[in-house]
Amino acid sequence: KAPFFDPQRMEVGLGEGPLQRQLAAEKLVHQSVSAETADYEDHTFAGIMFDIRTHKLPAEYIEVQSIWLRGDLGPITVWSTPGGFAGKQEEKDAWTCHHNQTHNPSPVHLREMRFNEPLRLEPGATQGLYAHSAMPGDEQIVYDNQRSKLGRKPRDSSELHMDILPGMAHLSDEPFSGEYQNQFWGWWGTPWRSSREFVGRISYGVRWLLWNPDVHSQMPPLFQKMVWAVLMSRHVRARGSFLHHLETDMLLFILNKVEWWEAPAVMDDLRETRKGGARKGKKKAKSSREKRRAEEEDEEEEEEEE
Fold it and tell me: How far apart are CA 143 and CA 151, in angstroms?
């Protein structure tokens, strides 16, 4: 493999002059990117706190623009905290408020809680979200019981981008409070309920990375093969191709302009690659557990022999 047409061995950078390449798409790409969960109508109360985890994708960032809720609503605030909500349930200073507005009741249809400032997450990041209503009562926000160990997958193609993880319900009409404002509810103990899940929708956009030599390995495998096919025109035996007569910088500039995420076959390939990686990770974890179990059994047998 000659280094002059190996993408992973090319000089890192974006080029210079009129052929300078871009790092990422200029605008957010909206591909029906709204993560909507299942809705079993299990519970309603004052708030729901949960994590979202973005997948490791060839993207610069994922930008959350709003969440959608239903219930009696009222004065709604929506908050976020980096790294997840664990241990921060009552630490208001660790959270940033993105929405603070009063809403009319909407018990059947989801209503959008638009963020004042969008929330940007890098690929592979975890962010805690907290939606709360300050209206007294017990029917402000709908949420569900946790139905799986890993939480729920979005019901549409957005499962490629993120996971919506299990969280906690909040029964107090004061945000982040560890006490009930209504003494009647105090008989129930703490106002936090674990093993609960968000019900609603998360609207967001994705800013995909454009192809460059230094991010070639992050691209979907199918697109990597397409790049290889183009760069093979650099080979001396490809003199019959019209691409052979273009300068290398021109070819790199053209590849950098390809909006690969618009190709259904490439996105399907990315989705299958992600699923394969998840299965491989589970298999590896299972193998590690079996290995530890075998080592423990060997130790027990040695102790019995002694």
Answer: 13
Q: What is the rounded CA–CA span in Å between residue 251 and residue 260?
A: 15
What the block records as the tokens of 244 is 């052979």
Q: DSSP E strands: which ranges in the chain?
A: 34-36, 43-45, 47-54, 59-71, 74-82, 96-103, 106-121, 126-133, 141-145, 162-170, 192-198, 201-208
Give me the helix-helix angle, 221-231 and 248-256, nearest 10°: 160
Residue 21 confidence (pLDDT): 83
Reference 118, options 11, 28, 26, 21; nearest CA is 28
pLDDT at residue 302, rounded to an integer: 62
Task: Give, in degrees to the nearest 5, the angle at Cα 224 between 220 and 228.
Answer: 175
Tally of CB atoms within 10 A around 211: 24
Helix (H/G/I), strand (E/B), else coil: 17: helix
* pLDDT averaged per 10 residues, the chain (length 306): 53 69 76 68 91 95 95 98 97 98 96 96 97 95 84 62 94 90 60 94 93 94 96 90 91 94 95 75 55 66 60
Q: Which helix (H) or strand (E) holds 73?
A: none
> Backbone dihedral region of 89: left (phi > 0), alpha (psi from -120 to 50 degrees) or beta?
alpha
Q: Is the distance from CB of 36 to CB of 200 less than 8 angstroms?
A: yes
In sequence order, which residues have a C-beta less than 8 Å from that of residue 200 and are 6 or more positions away? 36, 37, 67, 68, 69, 70, 110, 142
pTM as predicted: 0.81
Between CA 59 and CA 274 the distance in angstroms is: 14
